[in-house]
Specification:
This protein is mainly beta. It has one helix and ten strands.
Length: 156
């Protein structure tokens, strides 16, 4: 009997030690590569941003959001499209919807009024939330675009 108790105690210790390394059956988060392409145009105190979100895979993204941040404050009142919300004086966040692997999402069009008439504005575009996937390539979903007040479209 004594030997049986000792053996079961040792086996129990081995199981506990193995469990400490990580939960059994743990699944790694899926990976995806979010990407944003679009253009920005500024004329006077008005700026229009059009962007299309995409996903280079390898996993689908159920939902995500994109952050748009201007280097100057926005005017006090804005008319933003559905799915977009202002988060501070310079930032708007918009949902992208689901993004299939190697697919493009719906184009997002955001027109804002700036708080003044700058000659140039830097626009930051970045993934704000990625639906819980791991994105190892942040070079194509974190962008800065210099937009001059010429009425010309600047692509990103």
């Amino acid at each position: 009997m004594r030997m049986g108790r000792w053996v079961s105690g040792v086996c129990g210790a081995v199981v506990v030690a193995a469990g400490a390394a990580g939960p059994a059956g743990a699944v790694a988060a899926p990976e995806a590569d979010l990407v944003f392409h679009g253009s920005a145009v500024m004329k006077g105190d008005e700026m229009e941003v059009r962007l299309t979100p995409g996903n280079n895979g390898p996993s689908d993204v159920q939902d995500a959001s994109v952050l748009l941040r201007w280097s100057v404050p926005l005017a006090g009142v804005q008319r933003l499209p559905g799915g977009c919300a202002r988060t501070d004086e310079r930032t708007v966040v918009c949902e992208t919807g689901a993004l299939a692997v190697d697919g493009a999402g719906q184009q997002i069009k955001v027109a804002v009024r700036l708080g003044k008439h700058p000659a140039e504005v830097t626009l930051e575009v970045a993934a704000s939330w990625n639906g819980g996937v791991v994105d190892r390539d942040r070079t194509n979903d974190q962008l800065k675009v210099l937009v001059l007040g010429t009425g010309d479209a600047y692509a990103f």
